[in-house]
Amino acid sequence: MKGDGFVPKSPGRCQEIREETRSKILHDAMLYFAKNGFAGTRISDLSKSIGIGQGTLYLYFKSKEDLFHEIYAMIDNRKELQKLRLLAGLPLSAKQKIHRLSKFLMERLEQDEGFAAMIALNAQATLEKNGFAYEDSSYQSEWYQSTAKIIEQGQKEKTVVTGSSMKLADYYWGVVYLYALKKLFTSRYEMITVHDLERILLKDCGKQEVAPEWE
User: Fold this and answer.
1) How far apart are CA 156 and CA 207, in angstroms?
2) What are the C-alpha distances in Å from 83 to residues 51, 122, 142?
3) Which residue, 10, 162, 171, 206, shows the most beta carbons closer than 10 Å to its own?
4) How far out from the chain centre does Cα 114 lie?
């Protein structure tokens, strides 16, 4: 109706709004899943947290599972997992490998919210053991297995503390998980250093062996 001040949105602007809404849902849901886990997330609570109605959310994603899979595809870091596998097999000392891994993790956590979310979601899935979150059920555990392999090498070289390699790997990644959560949910925090992280596993961090950068 003329004169009522209403100007219909163009098709282009409508598409922009849809894309903006979808991006907001993905971003906010990523944080919500990272904090609450898959099992601990209800669509009704999630929609309230995002600030949209459940009906609107279902216009973009048909189910909680569909939304979760989309988020995980968005932040999938299989390249990093492949790098960790390769690192474990390189002809370097375990001390060099642990330094290289710790440096990479601290830099990525500092710079990349998506990487922090991936770490948090992997940890949540490991705790939940719901059998759903990852099509490859070994995916999240490979981070621990490859780290444990490096730990076992270091124990033979007598540069890594004694104990169960898997328990030590779990402890190491538990600290990484803690700082991933801090990256995602706190605005002011003191990030640990590479030295702090590798000290979890190494007997003596005073002298650092030089290793090539993890490209």
Assistant:
1) 19
2) 38, 17, 12
3) 171
4) 7
Predicted pLDDT at 6: 55
Based on DSSP, count helices (H) and strands (E) in the chain, helices before strands. 10, 0
At 155 the pLDDT is 96
Query: How far apart, in whole angstroms, are the C-alpha atoms of residue 63 and residue 201?
Result: 41
Taking the C-alpha atoms of residue 11 and residue 14, their distance in angstroms, rounded to an integer, is 5
| Dist. CA 193–CA 198, nearest whole Å | 9
- Beta-bridged to residue 202, according to DSSP, are 160
- Both tokens of 148, joined, read 């444990």
Q: How many Å from the N-terminal Cα to the C-terminal Cα in the chain? A: 61
Q: Residue 163: helix, strand or coil by DSSP?
A: coil
Instruction: Show the CA angle centred on residue 156, arms to residues 155 and 162, nearest 5°.
Output: 25
- Residue 119: the pLDDT is 86
Average pLDDT of each block of 10 consecutive residues along the chain (215 residues)?
Answer: 58 77 88 83 89 89 88 74 87 94 91 84 68 44 87 96 92 90 80 90 68 50
Total residues found in the chain within this entry: 215
The pTM is what? 0.74
